[in-house]
Amino acid sequence: MKNSMNLEFLSVSQNESFARVTVAAFVSQLDPTMEELTEIKTVVSEAVTNAIIHGYHERPDGKIYISCTINDGEMELMIQDYGEGIADIDEAREPLFTSKPELERSGMGFTIMENFMDKVDVISSPEEGTTVRLIKHMTTNKAYCN
């Protein structure tokens, strides 16, 4: 069975935990393991934080959109902003790369996403925003929608 949800919120740091918990609650109908749930919450946190800090430069008026679809034990998550965009996606995906070294960020967001998800696609254009598409195949025997 297929199910989906959409979420829209402002680019304020307080909404990062809201997004993380909301996606985790939605995905819980697949009966994920604690490890899978932790990985999903972590990638949501990384992608939303990237949108807030890098996409909108912490301006509170930007909007972040999340769509999550589950189907036959697979989760597809799209996190989108209409912020600054990424000039060089390959460079941004390099471990330890950061465009804001003054913030003491580790530059590991995309690396973490790639390690926790089965597939990560990044679509971005300067001044138009970024969409991060994340896919995870659940490993549990109960990975289905009730």
Automatic annotation (TrEMBL):
Record family assignment: Belongs to the anti-sigma-factor family.
SMART domains named among the record's database cross-references: HATPase_c
Tagged with keyword Protein biosynthesis: no
Primary role: Binds to sigma F and blocks its ability to form an RNA polymerase holoenzyme (E-sigma F). Phosphorylates SpoIIAA on a serine residue. This phosphorylation may enable SpoIIAA to act as an anti-anti-sigma factor that counteracts SpoIIAB and thus releases sigma F from inhibition.
Enzyme class: transferase
Protein name in the entry: Anti-sigma F factor
E.C. designation(s): 2.7.11.1
UniProt xrefs under Gene3D superfamilies: Histidine kinase-like ATPase, C-terminal domain
One GO BP: sporulation resulting in formation of a cellular spore
InterPro entries to which the protein is assigned, alphabetical: Anti-sigma-factor_SerPK, Anti-sigma_F, HATPase_C_sf, HATPase_dom
Catalysed reaction, written as an equation: L-seryl-[protein] + ATP = O-phospho-L-seryl-[protein] + ADP + H(+); L-threonyl-[protein] + ATP = O-phospho-L-threonyl-[protein] + ADP + H(+)
Keywords (A to Z) from UniProt: ATP-binding, Kinase, Nucleotide-binding, Serine/threonine-protein kinase, Sporulation, Transferase
Signal peptide boundaries: none
Organism annotation: Thalassobacillus cyri
GO molecular function: ATP binding; protein serine kinase activity; protein serine/threonine kinase activity; sigma factor antagonist activity
Domain Histidine kinase/HSP90-like ATPase: from-to ranges: 35-140
